[in-house]
Amino acid sequence: MKLIIINGPNLNLLGKREPEIYGSKTFADFFEELKSKFNNIDLSYFQSNIEGEIIDKLHEVGFEYDGIILNAAAYTHTSVGIGDAVKGITTPVVELHISNVHAREDFRHHSFIAPAAKGVLFGFGLKGYELAIQSFI
Length: 137
Ligand code: DQA
Prior knowledge:
By secondary structure, the protein is α/β, with parallel strands linked by helices. It has five helices and five strands; from the N terminus they run E-H-H-E-H-E-H-E-E-H. Helix content is 33%, strand content 19%. 1,3,4-trihydroxy-5-OXO-cyclohexanecarboxylic acid binds at residues 10, 71, 73-74, 76, 97-99, 101, 108.
């Protein structure tokens, strides 16, 4: 099974960024843990702070991979383009957020991705990525 995690803007700062919300572990360290936990899965990781690069990656993997775990971060709430890309591909997408976006500011309550997602996971911290992988298994 071929899965990819796509993280959006500012998630390269995990471990340093607002640790009270996002935790103190870097994604690089966490990704190593994930790979050893799910060592029978072909799991890859892509992060970009650039909207168009996220769209390009969705196009690249979105007709071939078995699943995409997408944390589009702030673009979730603003990007018609990423929402359209998720609608345009055939690989199922699980939308994910580390924090409970519904317990935060109103602008985080709307997602352009959710209507086209297979499912949405939020509020479980980094553990959410494991739950998302399990949802594809
Ligand atoms: C986030 C939630 C978004 O609202 C925010 O802009 C992020 C991270 C999360 O994982 O909790 O950057 O997607």
